[in-house]
Amino acid sequence: MSIQPDEAQDQADAADGDVASSPTTVHDFNRRGLLDYTTWFVAAMVIAVAAYLGWAMWSNWRAEQVSSPVGRAVADGRRAVAMRPNDPMAHVAYAEALAAAGDTSLAFMQLKIANKIDPKNTDALTDLGLLAMRAKQFNLADEHWRELIELLESSDYASQSNVLEAAYYYEGIVMLETKRPERALGYLKQALRINRAASDTHYATAVAYERLGNAKAQKEALKIALTFDPAMPDAAFDMGLVVLAEGDTATAAEFFRTSADNAENKSEPLLALRKLGTSDARMRRAKALLAKGETKKALSEARIAAALAPGDNSILLFVARVYEKLKDKKMAAKVYAAILEAAPKNAAATEGLKRTKAK
Asked: Does 356 reside within a domain?
């Protein structure tokens, strides 16, 4: 990245297009799946194993003093396999507990055993695909997703299968990861036929279109993704880059702010915002433009300032009042309402909202 965190930022009078050199996002295609190392998964595994082994073993499990929920899930999974060595679901449950504990090699072995016992077990095939993707073994993941797709496409309820939808999605991601965006689109569109509301799938199609050089289709896919998930950080960041390239710096700044507020462990959104200068410099420019009667330009500068200084109600009040000057009561009311969400007793925002809501 060309910009450093300690770089001087009081350069708001520089050309707005400078931000176009900001890096594209590091795409995150991860869905919260069976093999994610998260608290919800551990809790689900404990419940699943308890139900599987029955109340008697659950009572014993509760009595055991084991170091962690993951450790208890692994211990119970081991018992389940010992009790039912020919039951594929026992091996799957054990594998998922092992994966949560970080033992992916043994988890993979357990899943292969489950797959050998029952080659049509969709849980085993799904976890094999996810585990291969986690290890970035995309050729192996490709094999498992294709096998699962072939198995499920012939079923009576294929058009309603969440498992098939996930297989299409992940196969599409494998195609993206292996630089085959055109083929990725095919699988992603199949996933969308089953679940039109999947924001992550719409985002992945946007990435595929971007790699194919289809900016118009990319933007449309990003719009849909953000319709279903307005806070999606990667989609917001990419949309920021798209509108920035179109010359709309104010809207880009707002998308970068949305991305920065919702992204975890990603520096790109904040770096893009920093390259826009400081809120003080932008507000000086906004006030000067307003004084000269250039209201629309003043609004753009103020919107950028608001994105650079989230929570600064004085900037937001300025933005709302400029919207009023432009006779855009709907947007003015929206900004006043946003101020009141954070500061319910703000008198200026209260009065402004009443004024813009009045018929």
From this structure: yes
